[in-house]
Design brief:
five-stranded mixed β-sheet, 10 helices
């Protein structure tokens, strides 16, 4: 760019989850919520939030104040896996890593559905004809998994398809519960003694935007858990082009 005649260019390089968090400030007042979190629920899973510097043990030299932290929460691995989660993990590109992400992100939802449905067929939950029809659709990706859950897939509608829908629907619901737990954990880490706060979750990602059962379950479970645990309200926003807007917000903040 310098060779083309551009001078004194300021570049803002930002993680997508941080950008999605900051995009909320283009639409909501900084004072309208006690805390704002960033959430990416798509191919991968990640969260971001503001934390008191005293909580950041890796950087004891930080002065008093707050920092915006990219949590890389998909990398959490201290979580109890089910048998099918373990099978998926063993056949993944990075066994033993990112166990949490493999249990709830869009990249793995299809494969997890495939493993579970195949075992259901082995256990005799489906007729032989339906099991063959199901096998012909494999491998299953997250889009097909969502279609099976909604009974809008190419599978013949029958009692078997209803069972398949319930199985995949349960996996999607579990994913929503796990992500909801992630959000609540952030709030508790920030300060579990503060109640009656208002939280804003700025969310993006294909799983959140396109998988309606996931989105509705996530919102419902989060509202319930925040109310019961912290006596607090939680709202979700999902600005269009959130990463671009959030990056622009970050660039603007640098000039203040």
């Amino acid at each position: 760019l310098s060779e083309l005649g551009e001078r004194d260019i300021e570049i803002t390089l930002l993680n997508d989850t941080l950008a999605v968090l900051l995009s909320a400030f283009a639409y909501t007042s900084l004072k309208s919520h006690s805390q704002t979190f960033g959430l990416i629920a798509g191919t991968g899973l990640n969260t971001a939030a503001f934390f008191d510097n005293a909580l950041i043990k890796k950087l004891p030299e930080l002065k008093s104040g707050e920092s915006l932290i990219n949590l890389e929460s998909g990398g959490f691995s201290k979580i109890k896996q089910g048998d099918f989660d373990i099978e998926l993990d063993k056949t993944s590109q990075d066994p033993g890593k990112c166990k949490y992400e493999k249990m709830c992100s869009g990249a793995y939802l299809g494969r997890l559905s495939e493993i579970t449905l195949r075992e259901a067929a082995i256990k005799g939950l489906f007729t032989l004809e339906f099991a063959k029809e199901l096998e012909a659709l494999m491998p299953i990706d997250s889009v097909l998994a969502d279609a099976i859950a909604n009974e809008s897939s190419p599978l013949t509608k029958s009692e078997d398809s209803k069972i398949a829908s319930e199985i995949v629907g349960a996996l999607i619901e579990r994913s929503a519960k796990l992500v909801s737990a992630n959000l609540l954990a952030i709030a508790l880490l920030q300060d579990s003694s503060k109640t009656s706060r208002e939280f804003c979750i700025s969310a993006d990602g294909s799983l959140f935007r396109k998988c309606i059962p996931f989105r509705s379950s996530l919102i419902n479970y989060s509202k319930q858990s925040f109310k019961e645990t912290l006596s607090s309200e939680i709202n979700f926003v999902s600005p269009e082009n959130g990463t671009a807007i959030g990056t622009a917000v970050s660039a603007a903040l640098r000039r203040i």
